[in-house]
């Protein structure tokens, strides 16, 4: 017969409540007691019953990742998902992926309906949902716990989750391009509703200013976070009378599009044009030449955000906004600026 929680409690010499607290990883359980319960459960080959667990704890033991559907195939989202799943597995929680159309004017109601239907214990929000003040206020009013990833600091509602100094990272990338001798450095910006667009564009301008390079609006094009956005933006930039010698794309997927269009035109990377990205997704290491980019630890950010959310679910006073480090990954896609005579 399948072992029951009563059997574990009897074998460990503790109450069923204590066994439940151990398996739910609740605080204030002595280490000696926890080890005794875990040993008894292992000896009995005990497996918690998810339905009974939910009823006993008045929880669903489910958290939901809410993200914009058009970004569903991006490496960024996939890395966050993997990190979230790792945290959930460790804490015996289930995870649900909830892609929603942010462009839908009624996206706040769509989130509410998802909560009503699936009853998650909490949400993880990525931009643009993480930046939506109306949505965050509504979740606060409903008493729904949530964690954010890379939310705009100015909103003041991102109390739990993870954040990275994208502005400083972008400025350092431009400084690297300047060190290579580049002066005409272009930027393909991210989507307008994404907080990362503002930060990375601001960092781009910071880097130019610190190098004494005048900002040229012609060298900044609207784009997004997809391969096709990189291709389209590069076409605009390379069609300029004086094209850039370096292009900083808003993310790695867009940077891959930059490289594709450059190759289509017979240009060499980095000899004719240098390319820089942001995120350090697996694609940045798999393409050739490998991409110089900013390492944003997306998988770790997903894991940490989930951990902070789960901590807050167990204890409303717990959970924090964790700042994660970035790193410039210098690879083969960036090189010295070509001599002016060579480009004529």
TrEMBL record:
State the signal peptide span: none
- SMART domains for the chain: HTH_LACI (SM00354)
The protein's GO terms of the molecular function aspect are: DNA-binding transcription factor activity; transcription cis-regulatory region binding
Gene3D superfamilies to which the protein is assigned, alphabetical: 3.40.50.2300, lambda repressor-like DNA-binding domains
- What keywords are annotated for this sequence in UniProt? DNA-binding, Transcription, Transcription regulation
Protein name according to UniProt: Transcriptional regulator, LacI family
Question: Could you tell me which residue ranges the HTH lacI-type domain spans?
Answer: 3-57
Cross-referenced InterPro entries: HTH_LacI (IPR000843), LacI/GalR-like_sensor (IPR046335), Lambda_DNA-bd_dom_sf (IPR010982), Peripla_BP_I (IPR028082)
Q: Which PANTHER family match?
A: LACI-RELATED TRANSCRIPTIONAL REPRESSOR (PTHR30146), LACTOSE OPERON REPRESSOR (PTHR30146:SF153)
Organism from which the protein derives? Lysobacter capsici AZ78
Domain of life from the UniProt record? Bacteria
Pfam families referenced in this protein's UniProt entry, alphabetically: LacI, Peripla_BP_3
């Amino acid at each position: 017969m399948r072992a029951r929680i009563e059997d574990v409690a009897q074998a460990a010499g503790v109450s069923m409540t204590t066994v439940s607290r151990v398996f739910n990883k609740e605080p204030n359980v002595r280490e000696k007691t926890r080890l005794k319960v875990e040993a008894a459960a292992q000896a009995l080959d005990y497996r918690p019953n998810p339905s009974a667990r939910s009823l006993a704890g008045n929880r669903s033991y489910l958290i939901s990742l809410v993200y914009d559907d058009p970004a569903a195939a991006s490496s960024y989202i996939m890395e966050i998902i993997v990190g979230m799943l790792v945290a959930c597995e460790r804490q015996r929680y289930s995870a649900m992926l909830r892609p929603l159309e942010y462009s839908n004017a009624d996206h706040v109601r769509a989130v509410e309906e998802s909560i009503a239907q699936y009853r998650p214990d909490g949400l993880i929000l990525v931009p643009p949902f993480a930046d939506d003040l109306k949505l965050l206020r509504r979740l606060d009013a409903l008493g729904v716990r949530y964690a954010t990833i890379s939310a705009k600091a100015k909103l003041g509602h991102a109390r739990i989750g993870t954040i990275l100094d994208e502005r400083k990272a972008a400025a350092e990338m431009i400084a690297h391009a300047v060190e290579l001798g580049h002066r005409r450095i272009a930027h393909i910006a991210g989507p307008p509703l994404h907080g990362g667009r503002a930060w990375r564009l601001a960092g781009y301008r910071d880097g130019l200013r610190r190098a004494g390079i005048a900002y040229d609006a012609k060298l900044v094009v609207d784009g997004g976070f997809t391969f096709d956005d990189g291709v389209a933006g590069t076409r605009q930039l390379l069609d300029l009378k004086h094209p850039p010698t370096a292009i900083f794309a808003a993310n790695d997927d867009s940077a891959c599009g930059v490289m594709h269009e450059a190759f289509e035109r017979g240009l060499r990377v980095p000899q004719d044009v240098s390319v820089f990205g942001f995120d350090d997704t697996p694609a940045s290491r798999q393409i050739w030449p490998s991409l110089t980019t900013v390492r944003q630890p997306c998988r770790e950010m997903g894991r940490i955000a989930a951990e902070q959310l789960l901590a807050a679910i167990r204890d409303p006073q717990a959970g924090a906004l964790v700042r994660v480090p970035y790193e410039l990954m210098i690879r083969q896609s960036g090189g010295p600026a070509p001599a002016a005579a060579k480009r004529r």
